[in-house]
């Protein structure tokens, strides 16, 4: 039960219920679709990137609590950041949810995103937590493909 | 080619490939809101240009037991052969292919407690005789000259090369085990469990059962309001209950019911009512976590 509470922390449940930036921003200049067909998690991420900076970000779609909360909190944490900063956050986030952060003792500074640390005890849910991030990366790289973590 | 809206992808995709090759059309018999084949529509879709009917005996996503005997009668009345996908039926029901009068019947080893990578395809002898081999190799020929090759008799014609001997011995042991228990006993036990589970799970507020056919076997598929099936699965797992979550390789079924996925409890001969109670408690716990 403790592991379960670690996974479904209040903040995550709350973001699942009331996701932030759950909208199509008025101005967008790139977007990408993320889809995990086996689970049915399906999101589109919309970005307004000016130069190197993510000016605005929104997302729409549906999925499990972990994937939705992760998308919601990701939009909050990358808004106003540069591409490089977003990529660095993704890298750290992946280390966190896969449990690599613990084993290599690396310094992690993810702020609120650390609520996802419980995911590492549930390897099957890593793909849920990282779907939005992979989708963001696909959008920023301007790729036409649909992102997937399955 | 005529299938139904409740088929597993494995009974859709091969027909799509064949349709491309033969320039044929795939027709789909609709199902009703309980997840039952609409026999009236099935009869109408059967026509002089229908070459084959392929239908699942038991739906892996809904648990529906199809009225295949009736469907076979309807198809045979217009001279259409019928292939039955029995992957979900053989572990749960007593199946007599001759009594059903089906033309082909297929099932998998790993669904009958047997080894993976092996299965059974039954076919009526006359149909198999008229079919060319699909693979070549040892055992499938009776004689070879540069002028003419004679194929071996059935079933060797279709068993080219060194077979999966260990798999076949394992599958035999599994089928003997099931027959030893008596398939009627297995069916009765599972039916009892399914009835008990249906009542227990349906009583939970917010649960919607997906697949409420009159005749069901093997599985109980459901969704819970406001909670994605994957989250249900993770929490039930912590309670010691393993359910499958997702589209169950039956995406058209999910589309038919307007959902991305379901959670699905499967019942087998070794399950108990205590475990069903744990399942129901687990679902209530899911509701608590997501309250």
- Specify the structural class of chain A: alpha+beta
Helix content of chain A: 40-55%
Shape of chain A: globular
CATH-derived architecture of chain A: Alpha-Beta Complex
The CATH class name of chain A reads Alpha Beta
Fraction of residues in β-strands of chain A: 15-25%
The CATH class of the largest domain in chain B is identified as Alpha Beta
Number of helical regions of chain A: 6
Strands of chain B, count: 12
- Distance from first to last alpha carbon of chain B: 47 Å
| CATH fold title of the largest domain in chain B | Aspartate Aminotransferase, domain 2
User: Which residues of chain A form runs of ≥5 with pLDDT under 50?
Assistant: none
Can you describe this structure?
The complex is a heterodimer of chains A (150) and B (291). Chain A has 150 residues and is an alpha+beta fold. Chain A has a single domain, classed as Alpha-Beta Complex (Sufe protein. Chain: A). In chain A, β2 and β3 form a beta hairpin. In chain A, α3 packs parallel to α6. Chain A is globular and about 45 Å long. Helix content of chain B is 37%, strand content 16%. The termini of chain B are far apart. Chain B has 291 residues and is an alpha/beta fold. In chain B, the strands form four sheets. Chain B has a four-stranded mixed sheet. Chain B has a four-stranded antiparallel sheet with strand order 9-10-12-11, covered by helices on one side. Chain B has a two-stranded parallel sheet with strand order 1-2. Chain B has two domains: 133 residues, Aspartate Aminotransferase, domain 2 (3-Layer(aba) Sandwich); 97 residues, Alpha-Beta Complex (Aspartate Aminotransferase, domain 1), CATH 3.90.1150.10. In chain B, α7 runs parallel beside α10 and α8 packs across α10. The radius of gyration of chain B is 21 Å and the shape is globular.
């Amino acid at each position: 039960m403790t592991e379960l509470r670690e996974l479904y922390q209040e903040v995550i449940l709350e973001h699942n219920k009331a996701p932030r930036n759950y909208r199509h921003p008025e101005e967008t200049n790139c977007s990408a679709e993320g889809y995990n067909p086996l689970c049915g998690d399906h999101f589109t991420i919309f970005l307004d990137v000016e130069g190197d900076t993510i000016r605005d970000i929104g997302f729409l779609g549906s999925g499990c609590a972990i994937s939705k909360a992760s998308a919601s909190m990701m939009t909050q944490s990358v808004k106003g950041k540069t591409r490089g900063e977003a990529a660095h956050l993704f890298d750290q986030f992946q280390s966190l949810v896969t449990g690599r952060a613990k084993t290599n003792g690396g310094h992690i500074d993810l702020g609120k995103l650390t609520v996802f640390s419980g995911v590492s005890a549930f390897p099957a849910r890593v793909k849920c937590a990282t779907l939005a991030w992979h989708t963001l990366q696909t959008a920023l790289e301007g790729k036409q493909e649909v992102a997937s973590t399955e | 080619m005529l299938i139904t809206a409740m088929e597993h992808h494995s009974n859709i995709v091969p027909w799509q490939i064949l349709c491309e090759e033969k320039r044929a059309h795939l027709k789909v018999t609709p199902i009703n809101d309980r997840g039952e084949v609409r026999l009236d529509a099935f009869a109408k879709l059967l026509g002089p240009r229908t070459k084959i009917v392929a239908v699942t005996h038991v739906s892996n996503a809904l648990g529906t037991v199809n009225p295949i005997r009736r469907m076979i009668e309807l198809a045979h009345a217009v001279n259409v052969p019928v292939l039955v996908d029995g992957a979900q039926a053989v572990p749960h029901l007593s199946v007599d292919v001759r009594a059903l009068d089906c033309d082909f019947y297929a099932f998998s080893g790993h669904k009958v407690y047997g080894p993976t990578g092996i299965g059974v395809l039954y076919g009526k002898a006359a149909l198999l005789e008229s079919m060319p081999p699909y693979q070549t190799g040892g055992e499938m020929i009776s004689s070879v000259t540069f002028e003419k090759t004679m194929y071996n008799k059935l079933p060797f014609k279709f068993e080219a090369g060194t077979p999966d001997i260990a798999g076949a011995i394992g599958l035999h042991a599994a089928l003997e085990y099931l027959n030893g228990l008596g398939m009627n006993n297995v069916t009765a036990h599972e039916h009892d469990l399914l009835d008990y589970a249906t009542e227990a799970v349906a009583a939970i507020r917010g649960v919607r059962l997906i697949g409420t056919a009159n005749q069901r076997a093997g599985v109980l598929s459901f969704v819970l309001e406001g909670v994605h099936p994957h989250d249900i699965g993770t929490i039930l797992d912590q309670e010691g209950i393993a359910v499958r979550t997702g589209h169950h390789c039956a995406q058209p079924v999910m589309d038919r019911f307007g959902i991305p996925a379901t959670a699905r409890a499967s019942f087998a001969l070794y399950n108990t009512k205590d475990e069903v109670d744990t399942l129901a408690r687990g679902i209530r716990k899911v509701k608590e976590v997501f309250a």
